[in-house]
Amino acid sequence: MGTSDDLQKHLAPFPKTLNFTRFMGHAALAGRFWVFSIATELLVVLGWGYANFVWTLQDRAEGRRLMKEYSNQEWNKENQMGFGQIVPLLLLMLPFMTFAAAYNGRSSNLVSRSSQMTFTENMENLQVRNEQSNLDAPDI
User: How far apart are CA 122 and CA 90, in angstroms?
Assistant: First the structure.
């Protein structure tokens, strides 16, 4: 006999208790499925992402407040465009420039002619270069 059968036998005189026990078993199973589900994982990730976003904004506001209190020079330095601001902007533009070049049909300079050649063409060129270098080498 299983544990469930023993429980039903002992709780038979108390049908309300038996129904409550069954309900709690089903609720515990549903709770377990909820805790280990993908939806719960998604909610946790979204919650932490939102918290990090809020904390970042709060830290930025606190940093700006402290810089204003400390000195006006620091505030002006923070708002100037420098190397650290220009390089990321240029790097952000690269995919758009590549897309525009591909859309217009221009080939990129990144692919050289040697990479477009077949294996046999490369081997023939290599043999020709070796023969030329052997002819140019002085005899000892």
Answer: 36
